[in-house]
Amino acid sequence: MPPPEQRASTPTSSRLAGRSPRVLACVLCQQRKVKCDRKFPCANCVRAGAQCVPTLGPRPRRRRFPERELLDRVRRYEDLLRQNNIPFEPLHAPVAEDSRVLETGYHARSEDPMVGEERDVAVKAEPVYAAKLNYWKVLNSVSQDAEEADSDDDSEDGNDLTHYQFTLGGNAVNKMFDEAYKNSDEGFIFGSRKANVDLSTLHPDQVQIFKLWQIYLDNVDPLLKVTHTPTLQARIICALSDLTRISSELEALLFSVYCVAIMSLDDEECRTSFGSPRKELLRGYQFGCQQALLNCNVLRTGDRECLTALFLYLVSVRYETDPRSSSSMLGVAIRIAQRMSIHDEKANARCSALEGEMRRRLWWSLIMFDNRIGEMSDHKTSMLIPTWDCSKPCNLADNDVQPEMKDLPAAQAGPTEALFIAARSELGEFLRHSAFHLDFVNPSLKAVARDTKGDGMPDLERRIEDKYLRLCNPDNPLHYLTIWTIRGFLAKHRLLEEYSRFSPAQQSEAQRNIASSCAMRILESDTKLMRSPLTKRYRWHVHMYFPFPAHLHLIQDLKKRPMQEHAHEMWKAMSENAEIRFEDMHRFHPLSDIVSRDILQAWEAYQAASGGHGETVSPPWIVKSARTNFNNPNNDTGICSAEQPNDLEVAPSLSMSTEHGIPNLLSGMEGFGSAASGFGGYSDIFEQAVLEGDAYQSGWPTMSFYPMW
């Protein structure tokens, strides 16, 4: 045996020289992928009567593509720099980063402890979203790496498949599903597809199509911004030449535009402009939209326009649908959006500037609408949470973003046609990371929420006022709506923040005053929106936000503190809002007795307290109306009547009707759903914060709604 030094210097070829040469499978067996007995001629060739040709040498091993190896190494180094929070210039722009790069939550130790502390603070200041692994990409990478690491022994059986490149992925699986289920019926939401329906006959004539399109642009588009006017309008003009040949996605989008346009009008406007009742027009266009959505396979779609059509359809059926049902259907739409990665900013950034921005607008509109529906059914279903990273839509007009652009222009400093959605998204971005919001939605998510910057809600109010509202022109309808809607939202969430701080211990006068001030601001903002002729075209949106809990808060506070400093202003705010909000309430409304009784009890407490000071106060409108209801239960005027059906079950046929076809006033209240949805119990915090002591005698705790409205 040679010494170690000699063995170390012996070349590999000399060690292998004594081995017998390996016999490989013959050429024909390798081609046929059958086992070869490695004799010459082999049994397979003898049996087949074919010429057996031995393999001359082993197949050269395929080496990794050198550029790929280099890129993987660069990505690894960039990942290490990222983990240690070291600034660097990446090889590629962030939009092109590989989705396999993981941003871990730990950081390298610094030799200087102060540097390490500063680094941790800097990292915690912004949310860290780990890049999502792509299952198919990982699977293919692992398969290819294993394939390259195979030894030559794997090909000895003639079963060498390494020269085949299998690239599995989501697209391949989707194609398989499309083929396997091409004849399936997905009608469990919209009903079965009507095979004999020619949808081209359900479209209005060209003049009415343009009229509906203009109504949509005036009444609906500024509040949602889920369609790009310049490009869609050009496509609509082209489609009108032959409606039988348009794509199913565009047809669904057209019908959804008809639906929301009619939804934004009252019955008189529909009769004047289209010669038919609003209800009849809605029924026809919603049926056409349902069939068009089925035609484009909405439940498995990957098309943004198809999802947009579904969203607009859900907005149009909002007033005729139980909020619990709306919430379920919105869950379907959000799941479709997640499958399309619309919630993922990395996926949006890979798109063109226009497509990426439209995806952001659609996601935020979906989420904010879902949040409102959640407030009216079960607030814990809201998706306004910190588990996604879609960026806020920019304050840009549609003409500022063109299809050929690669990058978005800078957001405008002043108001644009996207003013409303930009301001609303700013508020939503703050809320989904706020502890007081998550307390009501999902407290466990507070651990992953980003710390809100500045001084919480007061800082947010200042920022939105300076960035958006102070630049608005109050004579502009959209600007006026934005000013008072956003201010009402801010007051609502300030009140919710106060509720989240509530403890069973006695509240101070200052705390009570702050909460009541917020409730008054909510009512004052809503009254301005309801009274102004500037908001008539947007009244469909205003009706969604009925401020009933603000009324409830003030009534209960006035019963406890009838002579507080701002009692007169509180009665005035309630009366002015009730006069315009309650005037159409049906006499069989389930809140009739409760509303009137509590209003009168609060006023009696106020009179008793003021009488001791020798004051004589005339009752406001809301008190006069409540008295009328009790004295004349059959009267249809005023707030409501004390008369109720004997069985106490409010049937849909007894629901209230307004100019927008809202089935009942409860359609704008949290948690009530429809009038027939039943009554459960308050959320604990709201019940304790507002309904203390004598509130249990009034029957309020038997109501079921959540504190955000």
Automatic annotation (TrEMBL):
Span of domain Zn(2)-C6 fungal-type: 25-53
Any one GO CC term of the record: nucleus
A matching Pfam family: Zn_clus
GO molecular function: DNA binding; DNA-binding transcription factor activity, RNA polymerase II-specific; zinc ion binding
InterPro entries membership: Sec_Metabolite_Reg, XnlR_reg_dom, Zn2-C6_fun-type_DNA-bd_sf, Zn2Cys6_DnaBD
Primary residence: nucleus
Keywords in alphabetical order: DNA-binding, Metal-binding, Nucleus, Transcription, Transcription regulation
Location(s), subcellular: Nucleus
Family matches, as SMART domains: Fungal_trans (SM00906), GAL4 (SM00066)
Domain of life per record: Eukaryota
Biological-process GO terms, alphabetical: DNA-templated transcription; positive regulation of metabolic process
Protein name per the record: Zn(2)-C6 fungal-type domain-containing protein
Organism field: Aspergillus tubingensis
